[in-house]
From TrEMBL:
UniProt GO MF annotations: hydrolase activity
InterPro entries recorded: AB_hydrolase_1 (IPR000073), AB_hydrolase_fold (IPR029058), Epox_hydrolase-like (IPR000639)
Organism name: Streptomyces nondiastaticus
Pfam families, sorted: Abhydrolase_1
Lineage: Bacteria, Bacillati, Actinomycetota, Actinomycetes, Kitasatosporales
Keywords from the named record: Hydrolase
PANTHER family named among the record's database cross-references: EPOXIDE HYDROLASE (PTHR43329)
UniProt-recorded name of the protein: Alpha/beta fold hydrolase
Domain AB hydrolase-1: 25-277
Length: 290
């Protein structure tokens, strides 16, 4: 698929696209690229959407921001600026996974006039993270949050052809027979191979989860994402990604506006768009068609 470029917020962002119609903006996370949406994009295009999946700022071939900012406020600003630059209207939809999910929560809440429906996968609203924050299994699953704060991560993460990223995929994925993440791992590594790109990727954690204030009232990202969208929202989460269980999922859906829905995808890990694409696509298309 051809990689195109667009300038928003003074940055050159690369993107791929399919289809024509209302804008469908798909936002990826770490350590991913828009390739994680390869199964969803053609289905949304067939459903009549102009589907655009940008490479996040700092992830090659998008530009590394000159000021180095990977702050959530700038990720949100990129999403909403892309809406304008791509000719999006009030019927646009936004879909996000992982860090793209965080940005989606914020973009939808801050600019509800831009996005008619919202889909987020595997990053619940921040208010729900504290529910399992003290569970040892969850602390272990989130160990990368703490490791990435260390300067030595710049040397250790790319060692042995980014063996740590291979480990993350194994650590976060469910046990899906026949699922092969090789393409996703390699594309994610390629987006971070240059030291500047890797610093940007690690900057997501260092800048948005600073050790001095993370979890306190002074935590900027927590304040920024405190409000939920007012639009109908679909929240999807893999059952093997333990930050959310059935009880928490029910509470998330109850906190979202009328017309919202959610699902805990059984046997699926942190990457549902590629681990269980048929189920994910079916649920998203049914939600958009309602």
């Amino acid at each position: 698929m051809e990689i195109k470029h667009i300038t928003v917020n003074g940055l050159d962002l690369a993107y791929i696209e399919q289809g024509e119609g209302p804008l469908a903006l798909l936002l990826h996370g770490f350590p991913e690229t828009p390739g994680v949406f390869r199964h969803l994009m053609p289905e949304l295009a067939k459903a009549g959407y102009h589907v655009v999946a940008p490479y996040m700022r700092g992830f090659a071939p998008s530009q590394v921001p000159p000021d180095g900012s990977m702050l959530m406020k700038d990720l949100i600003a990129d999403a909403n600026a892309l809406h304008d630059a791509l000719g999006g209207g009030g019927d646009a939809i936004i879909v996000g996974h992982d860090w793209g999910g965080f940005a989606t929560w914020g973009a939808a809440a801050l600019a509800p006039e831009r996005w008619s429906k919202v889909v987020v996968a595997d990053v619940p609203p921040v208010r729900f993270y504290e529910r399992r924050a003290a569970v040892p299994e969850q602390i272990h699953k989130n160990s990368h949050f703490y490791f990435f704060q260390m300067a030595i991560a710049d040397q250790l993460v790319p060692a042995n052809d980014f063996a740590y990223i291979d480990w993350l995929w194994d650590h976060w994925s469910g046990d899906i027979p026949g699922f092969d993440s090789t393409q996703d791992r390699e594309e994610g590594k390629d987006a971070l191979r240059e030291p500047a790109n890797l610093r940007a990727g690690l900057g997501l954690y260092r800048q948005n989860f600073p050790s001095e204030v993370f979890g306190t009232d002074a935590w900027e990202m927590g304040r920024l994402l405190a409000e939920l969208p007012t639009q109908p929202t679909l929240y999807l989460h893999g059952s093997e990604d333990p930050v959310v269980n059935e009880e928490i999922l029910a509470d998330i859906v109850a906190a979202l506006p009328k017309g919202s829905d959610g699902a805990l995808l059984q046997g699926v890990g942190h990457f549902p768009m590629v681990e269980a694409p048929e189920e994910v696509n079916k649920r998203i298309l049914a939600f958009l068609g309602e």
